[in-house]
Amino acid sequence: MLIYRAASAADIAAMWALRTRAVQARCAAHYPAAVIETWCASAPPASLPRLVEHGSAMVAIDDGRVAGFAVLDLDRGEVDAAFVDPAYQGRGIALDLLRRLEALARGRGLQRLFLSASLNAVAFYERAGFVRVRDEVYAHRSGIGIDSVFMEKMLPPACDGGASIR
User: Percentage helix, strand, coil, to 5, in the chain?
Assistant: First the structure.
C-alpha cells in the first residue's frame, strides 16, 4: 500500500537515485546517450533541500522505499520534478503526486503551474491537464541543452481556502 507524505531531508538521496533510474529507463529513446549520461551524472540542484524543507516536495512510499516523488517551487509555481521508479510506472503514482502539488499550490493562492517537460513526459503532462506552450531547449545546470516542451496548467481556486492533503 502506497503512503504519500511530504518529503524529508532523509529522502533526498533516494529521490535522486530514483530520478537517475527513471531518466536512464524512460528518456533513452528520446535523447542521445551523451545527453543521458551527462544528465544522469549531475548532482541534485542546490534548491532541492530548500524545497524539501519548505514542504513542497511529496514522496510516494511503498514498504519503506521511495516509489515516486514530485517537487514544486511554491514561490514560482514551477513543477521542478516528477519522477516514478520504473518498477512502479503505470500505477497512477505520478498523477497522484501532481494532484497533491496542485492542492499545495491552490492553498497558496497560485493560479498557474508551469514546467519544462522532457520529450518522453509530454503526453503524461497533457493527460494531467497541462497544455503545450512552446518547444524549447532547457538549459540544464550541467551545461547541456535538453530538448523539452514548456507547458502550463491553470488551477481552479481552492474550495476550502487551504491545502488539505490526505
Answer: 35, 30, 30
